[in-house]
């Protein structure tokens, strides 16, 4: 039987009862998967575009936040500056109107004519009507030049009794002024000039086209008229067209394509013209009439959605809430909003606003967000476009990588199928394991039978290649006759990694016990001494095997001698220098044969750790059972750390040579200081056992003859308990 048959056992073992000697570490599959995945990603081209996507996303986010923060600060400053300029111009214009009115009311001629008019109004003369008409005409003629000069288009004179005594609208003469004028008349009669905010006229006055009608937008500036004693005797009111000066003044605050400055009252009524009148007609906010204007016709309220984008509100205009700007201004809070809100069209906008307490209305400068943040939106679109292209490229590279990897696997499989690997001709598949497949082959020139181990194409990673190479390099350094020999190592043009080693026929010690049961003490000593010889050479070179177990010890006939042991599988070997440098701190080995220090301090294992495993192997050979049995890995590790092994004689149920039993139990001491300090020490102690001479060459030849004829029965009963297949793999770093 070939030692490589152990690979075949690993493949079909899951369907049969697993012996307890194959106890493994359950977590290996998870850690191996994570490590393999990490190394796989490390060598793939598509990983770099993904890294670029992540870095670009992070950089884009940081740059976007920085640009957005800078733009907001600049926009806030611009809006505030523009608003302050507009506010200052409006307040200066209003103050100018007050001064103009005061100048006209304080004019000597105006005061004289007003005095005569008031006196005629109080008299009871028979020609009172004619006198009043003459006085009113004289006052109108006197005010005319100044009114024309200051763009006033009408006047009204109110006496102390709050009666209109003269004016451009004859229908008002003799009655109290409209309620909309009362507050301003009273202030003027109290001696203060004042300008009203725009309001709709109650009386019929001429609009901009010359048509007399009510509801015409108008403003009035009132100033006190004093007599020769400087007592206020009347209020002189002068009409202003708001769309001529007031609105035009605010329209100077237009900002790019969507920015505008407008005035509003506390109820959200727009007091100036919007720059979007044509659009408001299309949206149904203004009536579709030739002279439709937004002044005094549009409520600055939030429709709840962008009307310009097709949104249709479900409430009447008067039932909608005030926009955030009007609500804040009407409550006396001046401010700037660069985060965004809906304007009266529902368009997301940014704005700055202020409330003018003296004149009882607010002024706001507003810009659509799409324009205010136009450069930022362009940057965002460009960034997302580039990011999308980068993601598409990573997907393309990923698919390309998968395709290339598939072609490489197919090429490797084709090379193997062709039964030709460099100068080696493959003849027969011997087995397969977790890392690779083993074939029997022959060198093309030497014609020597060779075992050729191929790294499985499906597990080719940086880690697996490194472990594969390490196993070859370390094993090739060892020349002891009880260590398997390596002949060659290479890689085919198709990327198949392989190494050639001596071809062995026989049986591993695990299979030996499973088929033939416990072995005689003399043979156990004979086998253990050979194992010690191989390990002593490795330890002398500073190497620790870390996975000594029956499955890695192969029994064969070599050089005409029977019962020759070959130590296999140096894939987990580590140099002591690596461990001292902290390069190896993970558990490695098979838990059934691991020393206490390999469990507690994996980085501190040394030759004594291998000697512990040799003792466990000797125990298994003598009794057919492992030192400790457990249902879980944690329970098994705890026993290695704390439990005292049962003596082999007790476990076997019959006497065992005392010297051999003591030697095995010495190897299984928890403290390394109590174990044999070198493999040679253990070999010499075993040689001194009286039973060492009980196994002769003749007995070995007889055994091998029976083995070759297929005699021998298994010592494992059908009902024997076994461990889960999930616990059968060696712990590997």
UniProtKB/TrEMBL annotation:
<protein>
    <submittedName>
        <fullName>Serine/threonine-protein kinase PknB</fullName>
        <ecNumber>2.7.11.1</ecNumber>
    </submittedName>
</protein>
<dbReference type="GO" id="GO:0004674">
    <property type="term" value="F:protein serine/threonine kinase activity"/>
</dbReference>
<feature type="region of interest" description="Disordered">
    <location>
        <begin position="708"/>
        <end position="733"/>
    </location>
</feature>
<dbReference type="InterPro" id="IPR017441">
    <property type="entry name" value="Protein_kinase_ATP_BS"/>
</dbReference>
<dbReference type="Pfam" id="PF00069">
    <property type="entry name" value="Pkinase"/>
</dbReference>
<dbReference type="GO" id="GO:0005524">
    <property type="term" value="F:ATP binding"/>
</dbReference>
<keyword id="KW-0812">Transmembrane</keyword>
<keyword id="KW-0067">ATP-binding</keyword>
<dbReference type="InterPro" id="IPR011009">
    <property type="entry name" value="Kinase-like_dom_sf"/>
</dbReference>
<feature type="binding site">
    <location>
        <position position="453"/>
    </location>
    <ligand>
        <name>ATP</name>
    </ligand>
</feature>
<feature type="domain" description="Protein kinase">
    <location>
        <begin position="424"/>
        <end position="687"/>
    </location>
</feature>
<keyword id="KW-1133">Transmembrane helix</keyword>
<keyword id="KW-0547">Nucleotide-binding</keyword>
<dbReference type="InterPro" id="IPR000719">
    <property type="entry name" value="Prot_kinase_dom"/>
</dbReference>
<keyword id="KW-0808">Transferase</keyword>
<feature type="transmembrane region" description="Helical">
    <location>
        <begin position="45"/>
        <end position="67"/>
    </location>
</feature>
<feature type="transmembrane region" description="Helical">
    <location>
        <begin position="383"/>
        <end position="402"/>
    </location>
</feature>
<keyword id="KW-0472">Membrane</keyword>
<dbReference type="InterPro" id="IPR008271">
    <property type="entry name" value="Ser/Thr_kinase_AS"/>
</dbReference>
<keyword id="KW-0418">Kinase</keyword>
């Amino acid at each position: 039987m070939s030692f490589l048959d152990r690979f075949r056992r690993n493949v079909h073992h899951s369907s049969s009862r697993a012996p307890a000697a194959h106890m493994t570490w359950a977590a290996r599959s998870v850690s191996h998967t994570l490590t393999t995945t990490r190394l796989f990603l490390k060598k793939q081209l598509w990983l770099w575009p993904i890294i670029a996507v992540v870095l670009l996303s992070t950089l884009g986010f940081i740059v976007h936040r920085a640009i957005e923060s800078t733009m907001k600060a600049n926009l806030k400053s611009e809006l505030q500056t523009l608003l302050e300029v507009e506010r200052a111009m409006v307040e200066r214009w209003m103050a100018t109107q007050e001064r103009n009115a005061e100048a006209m009311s304080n004019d000597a001629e105006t005061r004289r004519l007003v005095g005569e008019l008031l006196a005629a109004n109080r008299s009871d003369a028979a020609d009172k009507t004619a006198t009043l008409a003459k006085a009113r005409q004289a006052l109108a003629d006197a005010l005319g030049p100044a009114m024309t000069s200051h763009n006033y288009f009408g006047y009204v004179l109110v006496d102390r009794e709050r009666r209109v005594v003269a004016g451009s609208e004859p229908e008002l003469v003799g009655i109290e002024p409209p309620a909309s004028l009362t507050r301003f008349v009273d202030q003027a009669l109290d001696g203060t000039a004042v300008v009203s905010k725009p309001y709709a006229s109650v009386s019929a006055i001429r609009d901009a086209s010359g048509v007399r009608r009510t509801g015409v937008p108008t403003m009035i500036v009132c100033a006190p008229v004093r007599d020769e004693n400087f007592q206020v005797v009347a209020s002189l009111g002068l009409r202003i067209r708001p769309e001529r000066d007031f609105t035009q003044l605010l329209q100077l605050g237009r900002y790019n394509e969507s920015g505008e400055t407008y005035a509003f009252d506390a109820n959200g009524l727009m007091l100036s013209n919007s720059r979007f009148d044509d659009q408001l007609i299309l949206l149904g906010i203004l009536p579709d009439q030739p002279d439709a204007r937004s002044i005094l016709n549009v409520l600055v309220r939030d429709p709840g959605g962008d009307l310009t984008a097709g949104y249709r509100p479900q409430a009447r205009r008067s039932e909608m809430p005030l926009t955030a700007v009007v609500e804040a201004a009407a409550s006396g809070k001046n401010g700037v909003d660069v985060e965004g809100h809906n304007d009266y069209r529902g368009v997301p906008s940014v704005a700055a606003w202020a409330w003018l307490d003296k004149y009882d209305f607010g002024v706001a400068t507003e810009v659509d967000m799409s324009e205010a943040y136009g450069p930022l939106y362009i940057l965002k679109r460009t960034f997302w476009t580039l990011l999308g292209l980068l993601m598409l490229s990573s997907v393309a590279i990923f698919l390309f990588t998968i395709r290339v990897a598939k072609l490489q696997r197919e090429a490797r499989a084709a090379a193997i199928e062709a039964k030709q690997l460099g100068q080696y001709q493959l003849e027969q598949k011997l087995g397969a394991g977790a890392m690779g497949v083993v074939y029997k082959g022959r060198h093309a020139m030497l014609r020597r039978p060779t075992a050729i181990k191929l790294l499985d194409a499906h597990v080719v990673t940086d880690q697996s290649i490194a472990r594969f190479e390490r196993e070859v390099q370390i094993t090739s350094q060892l020349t002891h006759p009880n260590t398997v020999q390596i002949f060659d190592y290479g890689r085919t043009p198709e990327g198949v990694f392989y190494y050639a080693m001596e071809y062995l026929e026989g049986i591993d010690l695990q299979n030996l016990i499973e088929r033939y049961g416990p072995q005689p003490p003399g043979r156990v000593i004979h086998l253990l001494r050979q194992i010690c010889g191989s390990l002593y050479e490795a330890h002398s070179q500073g190497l620790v095997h870390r996975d000594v177990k029956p499955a890695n010890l192969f029994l064969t006939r070599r050089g005409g001698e029977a019962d020759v042991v070959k130590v296999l599988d140096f894939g987990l070997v580590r140099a002591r220098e690596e461990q001292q440098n902290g390069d190896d701190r993970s558990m490695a080995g098979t838990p059934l044969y691991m020393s206490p220090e390999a469990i507690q301090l994996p980085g501190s294992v040394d030759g004594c750790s291998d000697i512990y495993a040799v003792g466990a192997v000797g125990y298994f050979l003598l009794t057919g059972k492992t030192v400790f049995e457990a249902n879980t890995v944690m329970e098994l590790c705890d026993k290695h750390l704390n439990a005292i092994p049962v003596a082999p004689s007790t476990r076997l149920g019959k006497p065992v040579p005392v010297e051999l039993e003591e030697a095995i139990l010495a190897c299984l001491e928890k403290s390394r200081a109590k174990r044999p300090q070198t493999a040679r020490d253990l070999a010499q102690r075993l040689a001194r056992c009286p039973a060492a001479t009980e196994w002769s060459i003749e007995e070995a030849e007889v055994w091998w003859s029976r083995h070759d004829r297929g005699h021998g029965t298994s010592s494992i009963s059908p009902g024997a308990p076994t461990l889960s297949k999930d616990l059968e793999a060696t712990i590997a770093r």
